[in-house]
Amino acid sequence: MPPPPIQLLPLATFTPDLYTRAWQSTPHPSLPLLATTHDKTVTVFSLTTFSKHSSLTGGHSRSIRSCAWQPSSSSQTLRLVTGSFDSTAGIWTYNPAATLEKPIGQGEEEEEEEWEFTLVLEGHENEVKSLSFSPSGQYLATCSRDKSIWIWEHLSGGEDGEEDEDWETVAVLSEHDGDVKTVAFAPGFKQGKRHDGRRYGSDCLASGSYDDTVRVWREDQDGEWGCVSVLEGGIGTVWGVEWEKRERENGRYQRLMTAGAEGGVKVWELKEEEGEEEEGDSRWGGVPNRMRQSLREEWEVKGVLPRVHTREIYSVGWSGESGLVATTGGDGLLVVYEEDEETKEWKVRAKVEGAHGPYEVNHVTWCRRFDKGAEGRQEEMLVTTGDDGVVRAWEVRIGE
């Protein structure tokens, strides 16, 4: 029996238009908020009304390229981090005394002083291209055109339960030979014995670079970060990396997708070692630092998405609900793929040409629906962000 058809239908255009190139839109992990970077500003939209909720301005001297919400917090403070062409990352917080329900309903009438630019993270020599939080929100990774990745730790905790803006650099990773375009922490699932903390810490980071490689990084038991694998061969310049967001059977590690200028989108899987370790065994524990560089894990290509795009693929989104994958790029296409459960082959299920008219589409993300029209429909939608300064929501209609 063939799979049910999938349609991509225009759902809404977020208002107002931004009238300048928009780089990325990032949904909050749980609240109906979407942060979009453009010019020197972040516009936060309501996912309930598809209208402006608030904006963040005045923190950066050049355009803001990327942003990330801190996943968790010990208080009700909302925290957003921005990466800018001015070579810094900025920490923004939303006044915990503010009531969220009212500004979301009111849309753009909300006053903007409730967002506070609280801290600047300095260290990169060139533009900050991408940033990502670890699942717990403890670590923040930033990457730059200066070929480096910085890992920062949020040292939370303060008097009367209030959070301090105390951040510390815990690692500077400089193994890439070209601009580091993108970084992404793996989602935080409980893994099999090989990755339950006896060999490495729970956090895993992937980075993609103009040096035509993807590197996988882990923290050892002594709190030191190191590269454990280099993914290369027919990839080309890496524009995006995306982790699988659904927990796998038998405790296997999440797969990783890479979008390269030459190799399209590839699906990588960690090659598991045969047998199990003895209780208490550790791959890096007790091994001198000078020897750790020789210890590696092997990732292998287990799938390739069909070639549909005619230009670079800028962004890949992997749904944690349906397992569907969406891509966008320089040709203006929005494409959705699905993996065949039996053959494990990926197939094109839907495509929209000119998703933003003649403009390039810089980013795509899956997003939970909060609007009234979501009743009886799919619980998630796609959001695309383009050079035209427009942010669009797309209904993903399955089986109708």
From TrEMBL:
Does Translocase count among this protein's keywords?
Answer: no
| Record-linked InterPro entries | CIAO1/Cia1, WD40/YVTN_repeat-like_dom_sf, WD40_PAC1, WD40_repeat_CS, WD40_repeat_dom_sf, WD40_rpt
A single Pfam family, by name?
WD40
At which residues are the WD repeats? Answer: 57-102, 121-153, 381-400
State whether keyword Repeat applies. yes
Q: Which UniProt keywords apply?
A: Repeat, WD repeat
Q: What does this protein do?
A: Essential component of the cytosolic iron-sulfur (Fe/S) protein assembly machinery. Required for the maturation of extramitochondrial Fe/S proteins.
Q: Which family does it belong to?
A: Belongs to the WD repeat CIA1 family.
What name appears for this protein in its UniProt entry?
Probable cytosolic iron-sulfur protein assembly protein 1
Organism, by scientific name, is Podospora comata
